[in-house]
Every structure is written in C-alpha cells, then in structure tokens.
Write a structure and sequence with these properties.
The complex is a heterodimer of chains A (about 550) and B (about 425). With about 550 residues, chain A is of the alpha+beta class. Chain A is built from 19 helices and 21 strands. Classes of the chains: A alpha+beta (about 550), B alpha/beta (about 425).
C-alpha cells in the first residue's frame, strides 16, 4: 500500500526523485524475510510488511524534514540502517515509509580528543579500520563487521573486547537524534556545545532513553549522528592475509596474541576469568560454544554436521575453554608481562595452553556473525544477560535445559550452555544464548521457546536484556520494575503521541502473540483487551490482525 | 526427512529459491570483506548498489525480488528489468556471501535473467539488437564478418596448425586490434606457434549473460566443435569475458565439467606467467612507470572451473552428494602480478581493493550497452582509487575493462593499458 500522494510529493521535494520510490520491486527489495536474524519465525511472518515507500536522506536536515512531513500527513515511518537486525528493523504496518539511512555515511575523526563522529550508514569494519590506522580501536559488536555503528551501539555494542573497553554507553559520547516531532535532540555534552567529551551530559542521562539496556528499537525517533570514543590500541599493523573465505589478520606477535587455554572444570574456567580481570590483563577473555569451533574447522555446512554430530553431551559438558587476547598496548614488555601473569594464573588453576594461530579471524576487525547461519540457515540470539561471571554459567545451563524441550525444531546441540565472557575486567559477566533451526520446518516450537525464555528468566530472577520490545511488554513489564511497561508507554506517548515512529513498537510482540493462534496457549499473563494505541493505530492494527486471520 | 532435488542449473529459478530464502541481509556482498576493509573510502564492492542506493540493486534486495518472482508475487515492469539487468554480474556478491553462508548468489542472479527471457520480458532492447548482430554477423557489433581478421597484419607469424589456438574475441578483432596484435607478438616473441580459429564467431558472452541460454548454448557447441576440429590442445584468450565463457560458461551450458572440454583454456596472464617461469618470456626493456593492476572479474572471482552438480537438499539445508562450492579462490590473482613485477623499471602499486574485493569496472555482461551511466560511473569510481594510490598506468586484462576505463579516464593523467600492451612494451623490438 503506497503512501498518500501529497506526502509523496512533499518527500520528493526534500530528497529528489532519485532517492524516493514506491515502486513495488524497489519496496520488495526491503522485505525483511524470509532469511535473516530472527526471520523465518512467526514474528517475521505475522508482523513485518514491505514498505509503502522508501526514502534515502543524505543529512540530518533532510531527516528532520521527512519526519515533519510524516507528522503532517500521518505517515508511519521506520528508521533503517543496514536492515540486518531482522524483522525488528522493518515496517510492521502497511503503508509505512522506510527511511533508509545508508547515505548518512559521514565520518570525522578528532585526532586531538580521540573520538569519531559517525553517520547512521557507517559500519563497524570501516570504523575499526579508521581507528586501527591511527593506533586506536573500538568494539565491533556481535552484530558483525557490516553492522551500522550507530544501530549496534544503540542496541548492543559489545564483544569480547568489552573485557577491557567496557559497555557501549561508556563509548557513546554524544548523539544527535531527530525526535518524532521533528525537533533535534542532542545528548551528552553535545547538548551544551559541540565537544562530545562527556556522555552523561547535564541533567538526566538521556543515553538511558536512547538505549536503556538494549535500545529503543527505532520507536522514539531517528539517530543521525553519534560521537564514539576511541581507545588506544598499539601501533603495529595487523596485516590482512589470504583469499576469501580463508582470510585473517596476521598479528604482530610481540604486540598482539590470542592464547586458548583448556581448563579442567567450569569452576576453574570462571575462576580464571575472574583472576585475569583482577590482574587487569588481557584485551578479551571469553569462552566460546564448542560448535563455533566446528564452524571454524568445517569447509562447508555438510562437514560441520560431520564434525558436530561426533560430539556428545559429555564432550560438550567437559569443554572448558578460555580464550584470551593479550595486547601490548604500551610496548612489547607489557605483552610479555601480561603473558607471564596469565601463565601463573593458568598454572595455578590447571589450565593448559593450546596451540593458537598467530592471527585474528574474529573480534578485532570482525564479528563473524554471518557464520552463525551456516549450520541450519536460521538463527537468533535469544538472550543476552550482563550480570556476574558466576551467574553467566548458571544462566546458560538453565537455557540449555529449557532448550531440550524444543529440540527439534531447534538444532541438536548436545546441551551446549551458550557463550559467556568477561566484561569490564571481570566486574561483569556476559552470557548469550544462541539458537538455530531450519526455517523450512514447523517453527512454532521456536516461537514458543523464545517466549518461554521470558518466563524462565522471570522465574529464575535473571535480569535479561530482551525484556523490552522483544517480548510481550505485559508479560515482562510487571515483573521488571514492576511497572516497566507503563514507563515505556509513558515515554512513547511523551515523545511520539501519534505513534508514527515504528508502530506498534514497543508493543509489537504483544501484538504478535495476539495475532498468532499458536501463541495463545502460552498467553497466561494479564494483558488488556485493547492495547493503548491512539485511535488511528488501533483501527489499523485491528484491520491488519483481521486480514492476517483471513489470510491464514 | 523430506529432501528436495535441485541442480546448479540457472535455467530454472527454482533451483535457487533455497539460496534466495536464506539471504540474511548481512550485506557481506556489498562491503569489501572486513579483513581488507579499507575504512571510510573505497569500502564497497558492488557497482550496481553504488550506482543506485536502494537495497533492490544489491544482491540482498535481488534475492528477495527473485523469491517474489519465483512465487509469482511480482510482475515484470521496466523498473524490475532495470533492477535485474543494471548489474555487471561481477561476482563480488557471490564471493562475499561464500565467506560465510555459501549461498549461490551469482547463479541466482543469472536465473533471474533466464526467467526474464523465458517470460518474454527480457533482455533489454539493446541486448536483442546484439543478439541479432551475433546471429547475422557473428559478432556483437554487427560489423562485417569478413573483417574479423583484419587485425592480423603480415608481420605476425600465425600458423595454419598448432597446439595453441588464440581465440581473439569480437572486441579485440574489431575495436581493440592493439590487444590482438600485442598478444600475437608476445606469442611470437616467446616462440610459441599458434593458430586462429578458421571461422571465429562470437563467444556468446552477452547472450549467456543476459539470459539467452539457448542461443549461447548453440554458440558454445559450435565453437567447441570448431576447436576440436582443429586439434588444438589449448585455447588462449586475451579477453577476460571470453576466458570465462570458454572455461566456465560453456561447460555450464553443456552440463559438462571444465576438465571434460577436451582442451585446456588459458588466459594470456597465465600463459605469460608460465612463459616467464620457463624463461621464454624475457621482459628486458624498462617501463619506468608507477603501475597498478585491476583484477578483471572474469579471470578472478568468476574463474573457478565448472563442475555440474545435481543432488538433493535435506535436513538443515545440507546437500547430498557433497558439493564443492565455487568461491572464487582459483582466480588468476598471482599470475598477472608475477609478470608485472618482473618487468624492469615498474613501480608496482596495488589498488586499495584487490583480487576478490576488486571493484568491477562496470562494463561487462551486457551492462555498458544497456546502462552506460552505470558503466561510466563505476569506471570513474575505480579511477578515483587509481588516483588515490598515485598510479600513472592502470593495467587490466580485458578489452571491456580497458575501453571502459579509457573513456572514463579521458582528460585524466592516468594511462590505461591492456596487460598484453604492457608486456609488449617491455620486450625488445
């Protein structure tokens, strides 16, 4: 469904005819699924729509004009940077305008104060290379090297490098954001000047509004620019080698080195992570799921399964790896010192080093997130928890236990308890649970598992990051806060009273459960008969729900 | 577990609906691979999506559009044809995807064009004219067939019979005669006897590329039979597009393996590298220039040999029998660099985007004829990179690249040369 002609003409006047289209083929190119992050699941099938039109602004000023036109003509819109974040970053309503931000790809590096200003279309691999050229670095979030820096920092923004560099809100120094009323909001010290040295800013820290735990998911405006802190790395070049797919960064061994240790038990694995943090050494400290090793070894999907199906619950349960990245930030002696300290820790805990390649395939300039689709064709990280290292291992095990009930359709993983790692020198433990399936099979069980994880987290009192727009707000909200959902609603109504920015987020998962009959049996929480939308959206949502049921 | 039969045959779009449905929009097809990612500038490798920023013009958009076409959800329109055909099918997306996902992106894109032709919507009008030229005059330009060998001047030693057959191709025969002549002189200089095809016809690159597979197949059969009738053991090409046709597309069109052609297919860059190793090529004359090399797509990431495949896809998308994926790893990356570096006086400098990450010139596979602005803007974009590294000479190994770069470089201080011309310049007269 196209957007109204008057609005189209006004938008065209902003960007020119070449950067606006409602052509069906062009719009089809922006379909969310069926492949991709969380795609092929019920949420994608039920909740996503191809856009009514797509617009490609070049500047914050153009974005501001677009938002004002949308407000004037009541056109719902969705900000979109790379589209990699699956259905959550695509329109959920017919006739929406997709605001593709890829042309906002400016990059400025402040050599004196070591931060970089990036636009929404600028990706991590570009950012990291520009930093590395100058002897600096940042984090390439798990979203991958091709993810938009801004989009990923709003939503996630962490990786094993967060062991030293820390969480994303420490690196977001300033943000420029076009609010749903068309006004520009600047956060941090950008609110009072043009020097983004201070992320908190005066008054309430608006980064909490911007990203909370895992972000606003495009429903409170459009971020057009961000000042990102750059940290000192080391000066030697990491040399790219090989022909794709066998490429890697050759490491200057006296300055950068990965070492894998096999630990005798889970307890010593966690202990080692604590001790490494306590000693304040290392650039990254992580445990990886065993099947990642099979992905890395396999030449193709079929070989992965040959390797993986040879594993057993016992081999998985007894796989206690600690992967450590050492960096001689200041000089070679620092790496020597860190290695000696690491060796002492490992000796004490019974860790034995394994031969590790003098190269980096993942995390310094890459997060091979796309490789996660190799095995089954479909994937989503169902949860991220940032708590303590001890809690991370408990959390993973509880997930693994729940997962058994839903395998199949989930990939047989021999009870793998996921991925965990040290953040902020061991002060925090990060755990992430990843699931895989084949989207050609009946995926109702995957939808159920996804929702059941919320209940599991509530029951076990795990503070999950995906409590917000990724899960039914009326399920998670009362349990976290206890009025988290009400605050989300208040914020949404305050900033976007018309609900034009990415409707019906943040209540989209509630809407999904309402529409999808196979989800009804799980809906045992209190939920209003009608969601608190403005009238136009309520009518639209009802019509789309009815249309979905007719189609079914 | 139910299985689905499929083959790597682009004549049926349904062979690739699995691949289309598994595209995850990571855009590894669009960006230069992260390991080699150069930063703020020269970060992309997709000429189509640089020419037009809408997602529909990137492989990730076309995978979605392809699925809609396969499922009958989208009608053919002029815009849709533009999306499908404004694309040099350079293979950057294919190797990008095979970094992690192993989806058959290149074949999927080819299958869209075949479907366009089958449905009566494609190819573009100018492609139909080229097809007519090929049918009537045996060359893409509609030039008199009798003029095809005019490049072969009397000073060149060309045998009636030899193990090596030089297939010149339409462009070097009619337009860029200097490439044909340089190639012949190099063969003469290395003491390599060679012959020409008695009646050389077009290789069919445009036909195959725009989805006219029946016409391309007829040419493939005819040309292969001609080579076999001459008894040649090797077919040499100085055109990258021609090389890909002979080495990859002919076997694909005829459902045979490259190894089963009955003769070897080599490009001049391979031949020259071999000759250099053997000592028969002796580049002694200094070329005192700062030179860079452009990896033409059809001798690099598109050049892995072809092996037919048909099998079944089953649980978790695994295939049986095991499939050896073509990932562009067997491209002619080292050979041209070996030769250029052996030329005295040359200050060789690499482009920022090289080998499988190279940015296509934008001319090939029917693009320049139908979408000249895409071809010229791509070439200009690449020339910016040449200027960035301060090269004086841009060398490529395909007449399509040379012509496209040369027209885009008009007025610049960059000299555009074919690989054959550079070698010849280094040989004593």
């Amino acid at each position: 469904m196209a957007i109204v002609k008057e609005a189209y003409r006004a938008l065209e006047a902003v960007v020119g005819a070449g950067y606006l289209s409602d052509d069906p083929a062009v719009c089809e190119g922006y379909r969310s699924g069926p492949g991709g992050y969380e795609n092929g699941l019920g949420y994608e099938r039920v909740m996503t729509r191809i856009p009514g039109a797509v617009i490609l602004p070049r500047s914050t000023e153009e974005v501001q004009k677009i938002v004002k036109i949308c407000l004037r003509y009541k056109v719902p819109y969705v900000p979109y940077s790379t589209g990699f974040y699956g259905p959550r970053s695509h329109p959920h309503i017919e006739g929406a305008l997709l605001v593709d931000l890829k042309r906002l790809n400016d990059f400025e590096f402040d050599e004196k104060h070591w931060y970089a200003n990036v636009g929404s279309g600028f990706i991590y691999a570009q950012f990291q290379e520009e930093c590395l050229k100058r002897g600096g670095y940042g984090v390439i979030g798990g979203g991958g090297a091709q993810a938009s820096v801004i989009a990923n920092l709003i939503g996630d923004g962490w990786s094993p490098l967060s062991h030293r560099i820390g969480l994303p809100h420490r690196r977001i120094l300033g943000t420029e954001m076009v609010l749903p009323d068309g006004e520009i909001l600047r956060t941090g010290s950008l609110a009072v000047g043009d020097d983004p040295f201070w992320g908190d800013g005066i008054g309430p820290d608006l980064r909490g509004l911007l990203r909370g735990y895992t972000g606003l998911r495009g429903c409170l405006g459009i971020v057009t620019k961000m000042a990102v802190k750059v940290l000192p790395f080391q000066p030697e070049r990491l040399e790219p080698t090989g022909i794709s797919p066998d490429t890697a960064l050759a490491l200057p061994e006296k300055r950068v080195k990965w070492i894998n240790y096999i630990m005798p038990s889970k307890e010593t694995q966690v202990r080692a992570m604590y001790e490494i943090g306590k000693a304040e050494i290392g650039g990254a400290v992580t445990k990886v799921p065993l099947f990642w090793r099979a992905i890395a070894k396999a030449e193709c999907k079929e070989e992965f399964w040959d390797l993986w199906l040879k594993e057993t619950p016992e081999t998985v349960a007894n796989f206690h790896i600690v992967r450590v990245l050492l960096i001689g930030f200041t000089n070679e002696e620092q790496l020597e010192y860190d290695e000696k300290v690491l060796s002492d820790i490992m000796q004490e805990l019974g860790g034995s080093p394994r031969r590790t390649k003098p190269s980096d395939e993942s995390w310094i300039k890459n997060a091979d997130s796309a490789g996660m689709w190799l095995m089954c064709g479909s994937y989503v990280s169902v949860d991220y928890v940032i708590e303590t290292l001890g809690q991370a291992t408990e959390h993973g095990q509880v997930y693994a236990d729940l997962k058994k009930k839903y395998t199949p359709p989930l990939m047989p993983d021999h009870g793998d308890p996921g991925w965990f790692q040290s953040f902020e020198l061991g002060y925090q433990g990060y755990s992430e649970f990843l699931i895989y399936w084949d989207q050609d099979e009946n995926t109702d069980g995957v939808d159920h598992f996804y929702l059941e994880t919320s209940k599991m987290n509530i029951n076990h009192r795990f503070y999950t990051s995906l409590l917000g727009p990724h899960q039914p707000m009326y399920l998670t909200g009362p349990k976290y806060g206890p009025n988290y959902h009400e605050w989300m609603l208040k914020i949404k109504n305050e900033f976007d009273p018309m609900w034009l920015c990415h409707p019906p987020v943040p209540f989209a998962h509630d809407e999904f459960v309402r529409r999808a009959p196979w989800m009804h049996k799980l809906a045992d929480w209190e939920s209003p008969r009608e969601f608190p939308y403005p009238q136009w959206l309520k009518e639209k949502m009802d019509a789309e729900a009815a249309a979905f049921h007719v189609k079914k | 577990m139910p299985t689905t039969k499929f083959s790597l045959d682009p004549s049926d779009i349904n062979n690739f609906t699995y691949d289309m449905s598994r595209c995850i929009k990571c855009k590894g097809c669009y960006w230069v691979e992260h390991t080699y990612q150069p930063g703020a500038r020269f970060a992309t490798r997709c000429p189509s999506n640089v020419w037009n920023d809408f997602d529909a013009y990137g492989a990730f958009g076309k995978m979605r559009i392809g699925l809609a076409l396969a499922e009958g959800r989208l009608e053919w329109t002029p815009k849709l044809l533009e999306i499908i055909y404004a694309d040099p099918l350079c293979g950057a997306c294919d190797v990008g995807c095979k970094r992690n996902l192993d989806l058959e992106v290149e074949l999927s894109l080819e299958s869209l064009r075949v479907k366009a032709v089958k449905d009566g919507a494609g190819p573009m009008p100018v492609h139909k004219k080229i097809a007519q030229n090929i049918a009537t005059k045996h060359n893409v330009y509609g030039a008199p067939h009798g003029n095809r060998k005019q490049w072969a001047t009397g000073d060149l030693k060309i045998e009636e019979k030899a193990d090596l057959l030089y297939f010149v191709g339409c462009t070097a025969s009619y337009g860029n005669k200097e490439i044909a002549q340089s190639t012949a002189k190099i063969l003469n200089a290395t003491g390599t006897p060679f012959m020409l095809m008695p009646e050389e016809w077009c290789c069919g690159n445009t036909l195959q590329s725009v989805g006219m597979l029946d016409e391309a197949r007829a040419l493939a059969k005819r040309n292969i039979e001609m080579v076999k009738s001459t008894g040649a053991k090797r077919v040499l090409l100085s055109c990258a597009e021609g090389y890909r046709m002979w080495k990859v597309e002919y076997p694909k069109l005829l459902n045979i393996a490259t190894a089963d052609l009955g003769f070897e297919v080599v490009h001049l860059v391979e031949f020259a590298d071999e000759a250099l190793q053997k000592g028969s090529l002796r580049p002694a004359k200094p070329v005192n220039k700062r030179v860079t090399y452009h990896d033409s797509c059809s001798i690099s990431r598109l050049a892995d040999p072809w092996t037919p495949y048909s099998g079944e896809r089953g649980w978790m998308g695994t295939v049986n029998p095991r499939l050896k994926r073509r990932r562009g790893t067997q491209g002619l990356y080292a050979q041209p660099r070996n030769v250029i570096n052996a030329i005295p006086g040359i200050d060789f400098v690499e482009m920022i985007r090289t080998r499988e990450n190279a940015f296509c010139c934008g001319a090939g596979r029917g693009t320049k004829e139908a979408f000249p602005t895409l071809a010229s803007s791509s070439a200009k974009h690449r020339l910016e990179e040449v200027k960035e590294i301060g090269a004086e000479v841009l060398v490529s190994a395909c007449p399509w690249c040379k012509n496209n770069f040369a027209s885009a470089a008009a007025g610049d201080n960059v000299k555009v040369m074919d690989f054959s011309e550079l070698i010849l310049a280094s040989l004593d007269a």
